[in-house]
TrEMBL record:
Bias-annotated ranges (Polar residues): 548-585
Organism: Scylla paramamosain
Disordered: annotated span: 548-602
Protein's UniProt name: Tetratricopeptide repeat protein 39B
UniProt cross-references to Gene3D superfamilies, sorted A to Z: Tetratricopeptide repeat domain
Domain of life: Eukaryota
Pfam families: Iml2-TPR_39
Amino acid sequence: MDLSTAMEEARLACSYFFNNRFEEARALMRPWAHKSMYHGLGYGTFMYLQAIMTFDPKDIETAIETLKQSVEVCNRFRRKNTIGESLGKMVKKVDYNSFTKEEIHAELCYAECLLLRAVLTFMEDETLISFLKGGMKIRACYQSYKECWYILEGRDWSKDADKMHFESGVRMGVGAFNLMISQLPQKILKLLEFVGFSGNKALGLSELERGFHLEGSLRRVLCALVLLGYHLIATYVLGTSEGDLEMAQTILDDHLKLYPNGAWFLFFAARLEYVKGNFDLAIEKYTTSLNSQNEWRQFHHLCYWELMWCCIMSAQFKEAEEYADKLLLESKWSKATYAYQKACCMCMRMDELTPAEKQELSETMKSIPGLKQRIAGKSLPVEKFAVKKSLRFFAQGETLCLSALELIYAWNGFKILAKKYENVEKIYSIIERELKRLEKIRVDNRSEYYYDDYLLAHLVKGSCLAYMNSPLQAEECFKFIVSNEKKIKEDTYLVPNALLELGLLLLRANDLEQSRIILEHAKNNYKGYSLESRLHFRVHATLNKISSLQKGSQSEGTNPMDSYPSISRSPSPCLSKTSGTTNGTGLHLKPTKNGKSISTHL
């Protein structure tokens, strides 16, 4: 099969796929996957997408094997340099016009296959150990994309009508690679940069946007998906800044014209409403995406996951429990996580549970340790957290404090929750009720986990207050956690996270240096706590923001507070003007540049 026909079939398969004709897309690519570079890449991409949808270890393994074959096919068509040519590269400029079209496209397809393998490796282990183990493969990918970049810049394209297909692929790969590397915590970045990797977020986004604007190009839709994934998901789960929602809307407006019933873009349209805090509208749109196809059941699970979060964020705990139960029954990704999420939602309704439901809650919690799995020899951090909390449930008399709100915090949901005042106010009232209940417990009746619960309530309360135009009251909550560190029995993660939140308050007050000091303290002086890697991602993103602001590299007029937006409305009437939180910290305070009191010395 010649190259032009292969690219045309790849374009057709892409159209099938994003119009929900998934099996037709795979069927078009499968027969030639072992002979044609574009068929190999296309089939490998579809298997990769299935793997990231299911997180099933078998699907991940199948995708990796498929991509191995794809890499071998691409390798057969790549330029084979003699020893003399390789040495010549060091002393003179390469003549990329001497490369055939097959050779340059093989180099690009090779790089793309390796990038997909790198992402699969990244997925396998949230602590990134497996990412480092795959370093040599990632390095090969990195070097291959550099070669493609040089080809794009150094070749005469005046007579090549297919330039935009090659260019969109280069911009997608270089952009995605830079974006992925730039999100990693500093300790990983240092290792990667030691072996020649570097990641520039601004460059990554710029290249992806340039690829998206190449209308009619083969990889344009992939640039769109990476941009949507970054602006609507990665930014909110791993970082502390806002996604570019205007860019996301532009992409969706464009691609929903091309694929009006496409499940993927309907899903991202729902996600856009979710990150805006429009939970009811998001539920409608996720349901539309879910109902748009029945061929790929795993996609339904992704929608159930999002619907569950919409319900948790809007305090519809019964409905959230039902979606978690669907995931527990149908999805293979992490049954321990689903079981714990279901149990958390039931705990939030403890006063209204029937005896039968209480028995179901107890049995669900008991099942969690046995549901924990190992991927690439490692347990998922979210599953380890679920197991620890399920054991805690029984240790303190079959109850948990604010368990679903703790999940919101763990998944970095308060910045989304706070987009609408009524959303955060609803959650705040739940926290206040729980704090009053805890404070009524006599000292001699308090459990050994009392301060774990009490300080958790302060963490989520402070997270609400930070968005309710009450930064000083939020500060008191976080300082109270730090000052009571020694009273914590188990939930040691509370202190570094309280420090992170103090650092974000300082950033919002434009005290960049003190923010950096506190964030470095949180990163370097606490080890071995639950979901540690998540905090490191958030700290890394915030330190990058501070560094960028200190260097003056952001455009004039950019507000440094964008990373921690507040609601443009007056505080809730349910808030007193002075916090009821007892300080007693001994932490030293000094005025910030704007005169407000923020904790700066720990």
